[in-house]
Amino acid sequence: MADASSPPTDQLAAATLNNEVPKAQFSDRVPIRSIISRPDGGSGLAGLKARVGGWVKTGRKADKDAFAFLEINDGSCAANLQVIVEASLGELSQLVPTGTCIVVDGHLKLPPAGTKQKIELRADMVIHVGPVDPAKYPLPKMRLTLEFLRDFVHLRSRTNTISAVARIRNALAFATHTFFNKEGFLYVHTPIVTTSDCEGAGEMFQVTTLLSEAERLEKELLQNPPPTEADVEAAKFVVVEKGEVVSQLKAAKASKSEIAAAVDQLKISKESLAKVEERSKLKPGIPKKDDGKVDYGKDFFARQAFLTVSGQLQVESYVCALSSVYTFGPTFRAENSHTSRHLAEFWMVEPEIAFAELKDDMNCAEAYVKFMCQWLLDNCLEDMEFMADKFDKGCIDRLKLVASTPFIRVTYTEAVEILEEAVKNGKKFENEVKWGIDLASEHERFLTEVKFQKPVIVYNYPKDIKAFYMRLNDDLKTVAAMDVLVPKVGELIGGSQREERYEVIQSRIKEMGLPLEPYEWYLDLRRYGTVKHAGFGLGFERMILFATGLENIRDVIPFPRYPGRADL
Amino acid sequence: MADASSPPTDQLAAATLNNEVPKAQFSDRVPIRSIISRPDGGSGLAGLKARVGGWVKTGRKADKDAFAFLEINDGSCAANLQVIVEASLGELSQLVPTGTCIVVDGHLKLPPAGTKQKIELRADMVIHVGPVDPAKYPLPKMRLTLEFLRDFVHLRSRTNTISAVARIRNALAFATHTFFNKEGFLYVHTPIVTTSDCEGAGEMFQVTTLLSEAERLEKELLQNPPPTEADVEAAKFVVVEKGEVVSQLKAAKASKSEIAAAVDQLKISKESLAKVEERSKLKPGIPKKDDGKVDYGKDFFARQAFLTVSGQLQVESYVCALSSVYTFGPTFRAENSHTSRHLAEFWMVEPEIAFAELKDDMNCAEAYVKFMCQWLLDNCLEDMEFMADKFDKGCIDRLKLVASTPFIRVTYTEAVEILEEAVKNGKKFENEVKWGIDLASEHERFLTEVKFQKPVIVYNYPKDIKAFYMRLNDDLKTVAAMDVLVPKVGELIGGSQREERYEVIQSRIKEMGLPLEPYEWYLDLRRYGTVKHAGFGLGFERMILFATGLENIRDVIPFPRYPGRADL
User: Where is the WHEP-TRS domain (chains A, B) (predicted)?
Assistant: First the structure.
């Protein structure tokens, strides 16, 4: 009975006794963050021993190759730790290339006066080297464009920018769960594979096993060709023959055992015929029905299935029982769109609140966005400073603004009036402004960036440009929908109060020319114990673009999927 | 400029001033949890006003129809609140059916001595009724089987069991994020759509737009048939004719403008020919290559794409830069399996730790499982008590045991010896026990339920039954893999130290008969700055089965997907 380790708390105690910096809980090394991200920059740890590991960002030999100076990073924070290795400890040429992984035991010491860092590590022993051949390494030290890095999604998290984005993304995800948990919302996993077609199958990916089944069958039929008509006839002939044998034996009053043996033979030949007949019907290719259409009854889920475009409709079934719920998961669009703002696979946060109206929905959206902004300021400032330095000077001020300023709220009608006024005063838009249009990105950005210079919620949109499930207002012209617009990205959130009145939603579905049948389950939520409820969706990558100031959505998701590309 | 609401903090202050129970942040009502889940059961709130909303669990009229007594539940906690409504406030017959949604304003009062609940609400006004026709409502008050409820996934969250499961599932998800965040792990969203085939395409769902594109084209060609050969010939003839006109005009030295007009005509006829020729090539059906195989170059991602079976390989690219990461997302298996333990879509938690070995991996797995168990005891006891009462008497004791007892750790070889010993002593297994077998569920459950009666980690498995990426031990016979076995479900976690040595992993891939090319990116992680790392996967639904004691995995995920079924 081997117990391979002592419990972590003992390790911690032992570490302190040994004059060492406490290790990470499930590793033998100290995260660089625990050294450098202290208020004193790590200087208070001088004299202590530590094992650290990381990847060399920059390395150089000095003092006639007596030492190597290595800036190493382990991803636990943006900052690097300087490690000094003496030539006697190892082959220094192997340590200095960018990308090399090293683990060293050493002791922390104060660097010479006048250097930027507050602490450095003098190595006592090199424990591990994961070398790099600089001639082959795809990510040399020079600055690489984000576009170039998209061809190396498996290595790009080693760069300062993509690792900062990873930490910011992680922080926003945890902020999301923390916010909704604090407010009593339950996290509901809505399905990824769906048979509810919410926004039109044209833009949905299909999920199927028919193609691979057809390929499997084709291969099998090549190896083992299906019986021909002649094979079937031959098998039939055997059955007739065996049948005749039985008849003859019976007529000849043969022994019971002889007859039984012949009957067994007949049975076997019948089974064999059945198999041959069944195999003779096998057709290569996708199974089709008599009308020539694909027979989805033969697909894995016995019907057409798609990747979800939104968890909203499904999560509504949970809000009508649990009052406050949210989803946070991947969603998909098969749009052939090559812009810097669209992905085929992206993550959405979709809260839904019962006993709530549009104003509650707006309050929730505003509180959530503010919470995320403040969270980044409190928990990710070092990474935000990196983004401000390299990409977008204003990104920290933008977070502060949004975290602290009440959002402006204007009706759609007011928004259109503001835009028309701007046009009168000489502002040029590519898209015409008039009541009834769907606001274009240029209109949204004008409102939030130019007119108000802060987040804006536009609400009560014309019903004709919005979905059937949005609650019809008493004017019968508008619906209780709202969009949250923020500087830099425009629309960040779209939401609405949902139509809870059975007759109204039924007639809205018909009015939009949609069939009722697929929505019967959704109508049940209004038939039985209906409740006022409201919700919204936040595009998670949009939020990261907003926070970081990056321009291309492909750089803020670890593994971007878009037309023609799904690496790894 | 309409600002539809005052900020929530003002609402709270106002509520207290008005002698009201504070409302939910984004709703006008008080969650029942805020009343009932206090240490005093709510009795301290007697005398305060409150607006509550919920769905009637049981309702009855009393005192010659002078009152209705309604037990209502809003999903915020397991307990119901009793609401008493006087006949003067509304049509009582409409309020009492199970499933009815009501919102009432009222005041809290102490119930008569001797009743179970500590507080009840006397209604002053009925604000909203969402009625139910009991003759049609699919979920009557009587106890329904979980199997029956699977046909009503859109309504089943209204039952005590499924809503308790939803709260337990939510708690475990939040515990997961809390644990890994606390330990410095970054949450990484690995892709759902993948072109890396990790465990064999046979069990993967394909993601495609080819079928819907083919259907779209077929429809289009029906409405607008493709040109025939005769149409193409006719178009060619027009081009020849127009060309001749130009030649004739030139020969006849016609005016420049006349010639130019004829050239324009020729150009138009050529364009028209090009279009006709292109359309004549359109073929209905799935696009095929010359060899008859499906032309996936025409698919959305320009190659075959699948739903992920695990985020491990992809997240390894992040651990080799960020040190401690985890994924938590949906994964898929197209297995035609109808058991109570398999789903086609399920959620997995997959942490990955750099600078770590198998013992660190086991420490992490043990700490994580213990953390979740303690979390449920601390945060979900009421729901756990419900599960203990209705389904599995031992479930709370099991959580306590796992939260407090060190997990047993045995090598695979020791485990096989224990099983062989048991066989010698008369224990019967369906599957033969000998070194080299993959442990069957019956073996795993014997170890954890009978032999040790606590969680067991089995490690160092024979290499031939494990994946290529698991680190080869020095004995060259076993790999550094581990499984965590727990009472009730058997295997809860599977993990391993990953093979970080380039030559070893390359030869392991070849040894297993796999092609190297698709793994080149994965090999890059070993080529450039390789690092020791380890990780594991926890089936999230398995954990919920373990916690709740439920028997069927289809009852612990909101929208179960399995062969033939993907409702909603």
Answer: 231-287
Sign of CA dihedral A33, A34, A38, A43: negative
Q: Which residues contact B487 (CB under 8 A, 6 or more apart)?
A: B398, B445, B448, B449, B453, B454, B455, B546
Report yes or no: A534 and A491 within 8 Å, Cβ to Cβ. Answer: no
Residue A113: pLDDT band with limits 50, 70, 90: confident
Q: What is the dihedral of CA B177, B181, B186, B188, to 10 degrees?
A: 10
* A157 and chain B in contact, CB less than 8 A: yes
Name residue B358's amino acid. Answer: L
The mean predicted confidence, pLDDT, of chain A is 93
> In this predicted complex, what is the ipTM?
0.92
Secondary structure (DSSP) of B298-324: GSTTSS-EEE-S-SHHHHHHHHHHHSE
What pLDDT shows up at residue B142? 74
Given an 8 Å threshold on Cβ–Cβ distance, is B5 in contact with A155?
Answer: no
Q: What percent of chain B has pLDDT over 70?
A: 96
User: Do A301 and B173 make contact, defined as CB atoms within 8 angstroms?
Assistant: no
Which residues from A are below 8 Å from B527, CB to CB? 133, 136
Instruction: Tokens 């069957």: give the residue.
Output: B440
Nearest CA among B52, B114, B107 for reference residue B79: B52
Give the per-residue pLDDT at A280.
87
> Three-state DSSP class for B158?
helix
pLDDT of residue A568 exceeding 70:
yes
Query: For B195, which of A313, A330, A568 is closest by C-beta distance?
Result: A568
Q: Name residues whose C-beta falls within 8 Å of residue B378's C-beta, 6 or more positions apart in sequence.
A: none
Pick from B546, B55, B336, B311: nearest CA to A345: B311
Q: Which residues of B, range 202-241, sit inside 8 Å of A by Cβ?
A: 202, 204-212, 215-216
The DSSP bridge pattern shows strands A305-307 and A206-208 to be antiparallel
- Asked if A169 reaches chain B (Cβ–Cβ under 8 Å), the answer is yes
With a CB-CB cutoff of 8 Å, which residues 450-469 of chain A face chain B?
459
Between positions 484 and 503 of B, the ones with CB within 8 A of A are 500
Interface mutation vs chain A, best among B5, B10, B26, B505, most A CBs within 10 Å: B26
Mean per-residue pLDDT, B413-440: 97
User: Which pLDDT does position B11 carry in this prediction?
Assistant: 47
Which residue type is seen at A49? K
The shortest CB-CB distance from B194 to any of A344, A406, A568 is to A568
pLDDT greater than 60 at residue A125: yes
**Mutation site for B-interface testing, chosen from A98, A323, A333 by largest number of B Cβ within 10 Å:** A323
Within 10 angstroms of residue A284's Cβ, the number of other Cβ atoms is 14
Q: Which of the 8 DSSP states describes residue A438?
A: P
Chain centroid to Cα A377, Å, comes to: 23
Q: Do B317 and A212 touch (CB under 8 A)?
A: no
- B321 and A157 within 8 Å at the Cβ level: the answer is yes
In this predicted structure, the answer to whether residue B8 has a pLDDT above a threshold of 70 is no
Give the pLDDT band of residue B283 (cuts 50, 70, 90): confident
CB atoms within 10 A of CB A116: 8
Instruction: Work out the widest C-alpha separation in chain B, in whole angstroms.
Output: 117
Angle at A520 between CA A518 and CA A521, to 5 degrees: 100
Cα A220 versus chain centre, distance: 37
Cβ <8 Å between A530 and B155: no
Are A44 and A21 contacting, i.e. CB atoms less than 8 angstroms apart? no
The β-bridge relationship of strands A324-332 and A186-187 is parallel
Residue A143 above 90 pLDDT? Answer: no
User: What mean pLDDT comes out for the span A540-568?
Assistant: 97
Please state, in angstroms and rounded to a whole number, the distance separating the CA atoms of residues B384 and B398: 11
What integer pLDDT is reported at residue B502 of this predicted model? 98
Report the alpha-carbon distance of residue A376 to residue A398 in Å, rounded.
12
Q: What is the mean pLDDT of residues B508-517?
A: 92
